[in-house]
């Protein structure tokens, strides 16, 4: 079964061409990151609001590093990452409240239930516990795992954990959603579900960036930025 959510096609230079470079979105300008060696080298790219951008590249090409700088987890060695004119690096390594991540390593708390893992993302932002729990259940349902809400995360399969991580990232309704390989453990049907949800987030105006190795995911995105050895090659 092919993905039921084909995008308009991710053309060459999709991350750059044909758009106002100053439009709403996440703007990275001449970003370089050095940690022993140069991991990102003079990267300038725009992730526009309302679009899903695929970030592809071989393993080790710098995708996670780029997402981390884009979302304010890491300070660039030089250059800037700005969300609508505001630097995402706030000096602490905490992301802006407008930014949500789906992390490649999930970052779930193993002894908490799936619902609790999703709920805490909202509670941390000040949502009342009962409302957060209700929204968490709805978010789990978006990814087809409503029945797993009470299960401890350490009892779940890799793919189930990945869907909990997706629910936790998506539940916030953030202005910026940065998803690092969110479909790597999923079968084709569940990959289609995640792609549809990514498109929903963009449709409500969010900046959505998805790091991926999967050509089917790239094809389903609106735009495509490719990295190789820390440089943008497409
Ligand atoms: N804190 C760090 N210090 C030194 N090197 C690092 C650090 N973090 C990542 N690296 C290296 O930087 C390079 C880019 O890593 P990164 O995780 O960004 O790549 P990636 O494209 O996301 O890879 P993958 O597809 O395997 O997840 C790799 O060679 C990695 O070993």
From TrEMBL:
Alphabetical keyword list: ATP-binding, Nucleotide-binding
SUPFAM superfamilies xrefs: P-loop containing nucleoside triphosphate hydrolases (SSF52540)
Chain ranges of the ABC transporter domain: 26-233
Highest taxon in the source lineage: Bacteria
Region of interest (Disordered), ranges: 1-21
InterPro entries from the UniProt entry: AAA+_ATPase, ABC_transporter-like_ATP-bd, ABC_transpr_LolD-like, P-loop_NTPase
GO MF term set: ATP binding
Family annotation (Pfam families): ABC_tran
PANTHER family in UniProt: IMPORT ATP-BINDING PROTEIN (PTHR24220), TRANSPORTER, PUTATIVE-RELATED (PTHR24220:SF659)
Protein name: ATP-binding cassette domain-containing protein
Protein species of origin: Nocardioides zeicaulis
